[in-house]
Design goal:
Elements lengths: L16 E6 L7 H11 L6 E7 L9 H7 E5 L2 E2 L2 E2 L5 H15 L3 E5 L18 E5 L9 H9 L3 E4 L2 H11 L5 E3 L26 E6 L9 H12 L4 E6 L5 H10 L6 E5 L5 H6 L2 E4 L8 H8 L4 E4 L4 H4 L6 E4 L5 H8 L9 E3 L4 E3 L6 H12 L2 H18 L2 H18 L1
Parallel strand pairs: 1-2, 1-6, 2-3, 6-7, 7-8, 8-9, 10-11, 10-13, 11-12, 13-14, 14-15
Antiparallel strand pairs: 4-5, 16-17
């Protein structure tokens, strides 16, 4: 704790608390968007933000918020001179130097397993440190790297109960964990929003939707195969997939092979997702792993019922039988690859909430997905009720401001202990 700082975080504290964030800002993902929006949220106590990143370059979409509300430092340069990536100890030492220079009151590590093994004997930074878990724990981490990092942090903020259990079961982490469930980022809903439940329309096809990065772990090929399965049963179904990524060509080839051109559309990255959610009838999250499932509550906010795999944090975003359906995945990697020719994601263990354990991932069977779609849409009154419950559920979760308040509340508790 810095000696020139007053104790407490109430309004009477005049000296701003120095909050240092270790985060990636050069690329744009879910956690990076949350970080930028968090910086723009007014803090409940005087605070200064400092960002220490792998690179000093900020992604254009993140730059307005980050550069306005935070000073930024890149560990890839020292006194104007670039530092090479290897040996890794050079940049790690520069990160430590910047931390000591900034003299923070609290460090928040945003979903990064930073390498502190070189400094493992110095087990604490000169202030409390928290790790924000948003999916990084699912990836394969060197045991010694994780062990050294957890020795230096005081607590964890997790995006879901699943994220908490991944840390505890996979890494035997014993630090206290505060679960702050993900919330809708600003701008997801239009000015009108979704105030009325959806009604299925009989004068057009049934529209399925999926959104996210087009990468193997998201398993978007399952949407294509679900449309095929539904049409084989005489259902006039189609799908819209929003997003960009390395798997676009694979999906295009699968659509052509199944003869579904015009029935499954890849619409790319959309600046305004409201039209996407307004167009679809059912949202499908077919990911083989998902720390929470933010797009699931985005869909629910528009009154779109969701079908998701019953793994990781998805059952926390989708209330089975209330706002949608959670289905146990049964399909192997090999079977999915044979069906789609999609690359097999070398996904590590995932969390199975029903058994509270970690096990290899599986994927949703497209025939079972088709069954679920028909159950969800077979009764128009039940569909409308589920749509209404989805809207109400998102409203009850609280908005992004509430999430920011929760994050600050956790940080204030550690600041007061220091």
């Amino acid at each position: 704790m810095n000696e020139n700082k007053n104790s407490g975080t109430g309004a009477e504290t005049q000296t701003p608390r120095r909050l240092l964030h270790l985060v990636n800002v050069r690329t744009v993902g879910g956690v990076e968007r949350i970080f930028a929006d968090f910086l723009a949220h007014p803090p409940p106590f005087p605070a200064q933000h400092f960002t220490v990143a792998d690179h000093g370059t900020v992604a254009p979409t993140l730059a307005p918020a980050i550069l306005r509300h935070s000073q930024i430092y890149g560990i890839n340069a020292f006194s104007g001179l670039p530092l090479p990536r290897r040996p890794r100890a050079l940049r790690a030492a520069n990160r430590e130097r910047l931390i000591r220079k900034i003299k923070p009151d609290l460090i928040l590590i945003w979903n990064q397993f930073i390498d502190v093994r070189t400094f493992s004997q110095d087990r604490r930074w000169p202030c409390p440190a928290l790790h924000y878990e948003h999916g990084g724990a699912w990836y394969k981490q060197t045991p010694a790297l994780a062990e050294a990092l957890f020795r230096r942090i005081d607590g964890v903020i997790a995006v879901s109960q699943a994220a908490r259990r991944i840390l505890q079961l996979k890494y035997q982490m014993t630090q206290p964990v505060d679960v702050c469930l993900n919330a809708l980022c600003p701008g997801v809903l239009s000015a009108k929003g979704a105030t009325e439940p959806r009604t299925l329309k009989n004068d057009r096809p049934l529209v399925l939707g999926g959104a996210g990065r087009l990468v193997p772990v998201k398993c978007f090929g399952l949407l294509v195969l679900t449309v095929k399965a539904l049409r084989a049963r005489g259902v006039d179904a189609c799908a819209v997939i929003a997003g960009t990524g390395s798997e676009r060509a694979t999906l295009e080839a699968l659509i052509a092979k199944q003869g579904l051109q015009g029935k499954v559309r890849l619409v790319g990255l959309l600046d305004d997702m409201s039209r996407f959610y307004q167009e679809i009838d059912v949202y499908i999250s077919a990911s083989m792993r998902e720390p929470f499932g933010l797009t699931c509550i985005e869909a629910a906010a528009w009154g779109v019922p969701v079908i998701a795999a019953a793994i990781d944090g998805l059952p926390e975003a989708v209330r089975d039988g209330v706002t949608g359906m959670c289905i146990t995945p049964t399909l192997s990697h090999e079977a999915y690859h044979a069906m789609t020719q999609a690359p097999i994601d070398p996904s590590p263990l995932v969390y199975w909430p029903d058994k509270d354990h970690l096990a290899p991932p599986k994927m949703l069977d497209p025939e079972i997905l088709a069954d679920a779609v028909l159950r969800l849409t077979g009764d128009p009154d039940h569909y409308r009720q589920m749509s209404a419950q989805a809207i109400a559920d998102v409203a009850a979760r609280g908005d992004f401001s509430a999430l920011c308040d929760d994050l600050y509340r956790v940080m204030a508790r550690y600041l007061d202990r220091a």
